[in-house]
Design a protein that fits this description.
The protein is α+β, with helices and mostly antiparallel strands. Helices cover 34% and strands 23% of the residues. The chain has a 4-stranded antiparallel sheet with strand order 3-2-5-6, with no helix packed on it. Strands 1-4 form a two-stranded antiparallel ribbon. The protein is globular and about 45 Å long.
């Protein structure tokens, strides 16, 4: 097998792995009135914004959802309308929430560990590069040599998919 065929297979595995990773954040909230009671069941327009500061600043990302509440509860998938792919989740971020035309709720929500796991996508490519560097790229690569690296390639793809 020639080195170009091995490189093509490795490239396809990486592309297929990245296609599987959803860049979305599940968010659940409960809308309450000024007395702490759930708002009336209905449909509401909610604007979500990501910031790199707790107060002030300029939104790095904005997305609007029309939500239906039940006992004040709603669920959305942030990033399902406007991609989160341009956001650097390797730094502190805060989520601003605005209901209709009201001012943004305060304080903003500081993002925790789950959304920050999205930075693992970038870290996963380092493993692929290490596997690629460990393969003997001479024209005489044997089937046995490739089988020895198959487990490593499979592990890299599994890590990228999870």
């Amino acid at each position: 097998m020639h080195k170009s065929a091995v490189l093509l297979i490795l490239s396809l595995l990486v592309v297929l792995s990245f296609a599987q990773i959803p860049l979305k954040i599940s968010f659940q909230g409960r809308l309450l009135d000024s007395l702490g009671n759930p708002i009336a069941d209905g449909t509401y327009l909610i604007t979500f914004r990501l910031y790199d500061v707790a107060t002030g600043g300029t939104a790095l990302w904005t997305e609007q959802h029309t939500v239906t509440t039940h006992n004040g509860l709603f669920n959305v998938m942030l990033g399902s309308i406007i991609s989160l792919s341009g956001i650097d989740f390797g730094r502190p971020l805060w989520l601003g929430v605005q209901i209709g035309t009201e001012p943004e709720l305060s304080p903003r929500y500081e993002l925790g560990a789950s959304p920050y796991a999205l930075v693992a996508i970038k870290a996963g490519t380092a493993n692929v590069a290490n596997v690629a560097n460990s393969v003997d790229w001479s024209d005489t690569v044997s089937y046995t040599h490739l089988r020895a690296h198959e487990t490593s390639l499979h592990l890299v793809c599994r890590l990228l998919l999870e």
